[in-house]
Amino acid sequence: MIAPMTKVTFLGPKPEKERFLRRLQEVGVTHLILPAEAQEPTEIKKELGKVNGAKRFLAKQLAAPTFAPAPKDLPPDWAEKLKLLEDLKNREERLRLDLAFLNKEETRCQIWGEFKAEDLDHLRKNGLDIKFYRMLLSAYTRLEHEGVVFSLVGTRKEEAAVVALSTQPIKIDRPEEAVPAPLSKLAEDLKTKTAELEAIGADYRRLAAGLEDLIRLEVDLQNEFEFERANRNTDSALEDRLFLVQCFTPMAEKTLVEAIGSGYTFYHVAGEPDPGDRVPVHLQNPAVLSPGEDLVKVYSHPNNSDFDPSGWVFYCFVVFFGMIVGDFGYGAILLGLTAYINKKVKTPSDDAKRFFRLSYLLSLSTMVFGVLGASYLGYPLAPDNILQKLLVLDLATPEGQNKVMLVSIFMGMIHITISLAIKVYRTKDMPSLGWIIAIWAGYFMIDGEMGSGGGMPVWSKWTMIGGLGLVLLFTSD
């Protein structure tokens, strides 16, 4: 159900505003009414963004492969740790760029083979001009130049690596290649950079070991952000001598005042929300229906004055899921996986409890429809098997397919009918009433032809005509 909201206004001396807001924040279950263009504490918001980004980044590191690095001291407080994390990420980015360049350079230089840079310098000091060229093998065989010696030092498919040597400056009408780096030097640099990258990964995991502390810091910052936002945007009265705080709460007036406790000087008045107020929505459902709240929030959050569809959506989702999968074996596998994961999670959160509750029901629904459809991991049942007596939805026959189709249509019609009925109740909308009549008359017409047999009932045709007549008569241009 959607909990009814009470609008409460608090009035108290200005010097006690911060202390009162702190207490109201501790009590919780209140939604402060702030201006549409509320001022925000930008400093805290910026810090909160850093912490949130660090939390998401470090959470991924916990799943990364582990190393056994030497012990290393980390900064004592998270402000320094966040600075260290930023430095590590910058270093990692530079290292990855360096590694990409070195790998590309190693690929380029493979064809030239291994040599010593000092030998190349020695030859040049002794008057030799040395240049490197990359060309097709066919071009190398036709290569001639007076006073120049060409040496083929490597090949790769149809490509040739050629060194040109001469005692005179070499001028050949071909693009010259940059002097290749020694392969041993490239391999050494790659090894060094890779080791540095692994060390950064180890530092990431050291920081990730304190993730719970970072999560608590994020919660504290979020609370501080909300407090400062409320503190900067609450109204005042009597020439700024009084503070004025308005909020919505699902708690009873007396319960809220008792929760705030004694020691606070304030006057309060409570009542129904005013017309035009943007009232927050607080869903309150028993534990068995709580997964339905998550399903509802996926596509739309109901308005405070709406009907809470959590229970209906939840059970319809479970039924449709079972119908779609519809295999006893798959349901049993899902049930086993759910039970195993549930057992491994020692202290599940509220969200995890709702997920497990939903998964158990989806498993059972899948198994039930698997039995009704005689589906057991694709294995056919013998004609004399006792489970054949439970076969109700035989999808191998047109009759069974029609039954499943009618069940789906029936549940969809209930969804639409509830929506239209709410509109009729609130606005006395006659076209909506006409659509309800026409929809259900149409259902019985289809059921007579496809489901129960016996032909289409005569009354259903005239009832549908009457319903459509209401739609036409009361629908404006």
Question: What's the topology here?
Answer:
Layout: E1 6-13, H1 17-27, E2 31-32, H2 42-61, H3 78-109, H4 117-125, E3 129-136, H5 137-141, E4 149-156, E5 159-166, E6 176-177, H6 183-208, H7 211-233, E7 235-237, E8 242-249, H8 253-260, E9 267-271, H9 290-299, H10 310-325, H11 328-344, H12 350-372, H13 398-427, H14 430-451, H15 458-474
Antiparallel strand pairs: 1-8, 1-9, 2-8, 3-5, 3-6, 4-5, 7-8
Helix pairs in contact: 1-7, 2-6, 2-7, 3-6, 9-10, 10-12, 10-13, 11-12, 13-14, 14-15
Written overview of the protein:
- The protein is of the alpha+beta class and 477 residues long.
- Helix content is 56%, strand content 11%.
- About 1% of the residues have low confidence.
- It contains 15 helices and 9 strands.
- The protein starts with 5 loop residues before the first strand and ends with a helix.
- The strands form 2 sheets. Strands 1, 2, 7, 8 and 9 form a 5-stranded antiparallel beta sheet that branches. It has a 4-stranded antiparallel beta sheet with strand order 4-5-3-6.
